[in-house]
Amino acid sequence: MKNNLLLGAFLCFISAVSWGAMFPVANSAFHHIDAFYFTFFRYFYVSIILAVWLLWKEGKKAFRFEGKGKELLFFGTMAFTVYNLLIFWGQDLLGDPGTMVASIMESLMPMISIVIVWLLVRRRPHGFTLFCVLVGFVGALLVVTKGDFGAFFAGASNLVPSLLIFIAVVGWVIYTMGGSRFSNNGWSALRYSTLSCLLGTGVATVVVFITTVSGYISFPSAETLAITAPHIAFMVIFPGVIALVGWNYGVSVITPLNGLLFLNFVPVTTLAIQVVQGAGITMYDYIGTVFIIVSLLSNNIFMRVQQRKTESKTYFKGRLQESESY
After folding, report:
1. 122 backbone dihedrals φ, ψ, rounded to 5°
2. Higher-confidence residue: 323 or 124?
3. What is the mean pLDDT of residues 112-132?
4. What is the pTM (predicted TM-score) of this model?
5. For 75-130, what is the HEC assignment?
6. Which of 6-20, 177-191, 208-222 shows the lowest mean pLDDT across its residues?
7. CA nearest 112: which of 176, 158, 164?
8. Is 260:106 a contact under the CB 8 Å cutoff?
9. What are the boundaries of each domain within the chain?
């Protein structure tokens, strides 16, 4: 059991660091290839690897939808079309600043999930959690706007790409929520990841084909593919296969509450890489990152305290009922 916990924690850590590193890697690739084909080639190979892995581990029966085809198509589209296409498209449109913006938006996933649950279930979060959500979004705004709120909201060149990134992150949050529906029905993390990836990548392929035919993008040359091969290889292995399956498995072992802590490494990794690369980092990037990390940690600690209180109440209530039965 202890070994499983250590493995789960390690996989969550590797996943978070991989996600933090993928934005600087993507930014470097965007000097040569557009975001659409970059995403297409990445998940084309990821889909093949996952399909072979699933076939080897669980056999042909694991590829049956079991009446869940529409759900898999929806959640797969949210992750591998909405998230993957829009987040890199938005990052590419923003240029170099888009690297930090995309990373910060990624780290906001826990906060966004709280808001989505509130809207869907009509269950209002605790006041302190809402305060943490507010602090997190203020941190994101500082990074996105670089402190110049007026100029940012007045210019569509910044607002639209940032909105694309935000929609992308919401798509991944929805996909993550869908994972619990399938794990509760006995589906492995690998099976859910593979089938949703195959369907979502299929939808993304259609989108890439349409944008190519329309003339918005063009198929990359052999030289471009050769230059970006190392970038795509990294994206396939780490943020693709390892992070996708590893995160789903890790969270199932160490619990989502513990897993969320590792998301703090996403903006930290991106920030560290950019500093090493000598990229232009503003004071607002540092302050915004600190805001988000503090909000995530604070809310996580608060949730732990609330969970322990609930467990204590349940325990004492059970003991009281036992004593009354005698």
Report:
1. 65, 35
2. 124
3. 77
4. 0.82
5. HHHHHHHHHHHHHHHHHHHHCCHHHHHHHHHHHCHHHHHHHHHHHHHCCCCCHHHH
6. 177-191
7. 176
8. no
9. 2-325
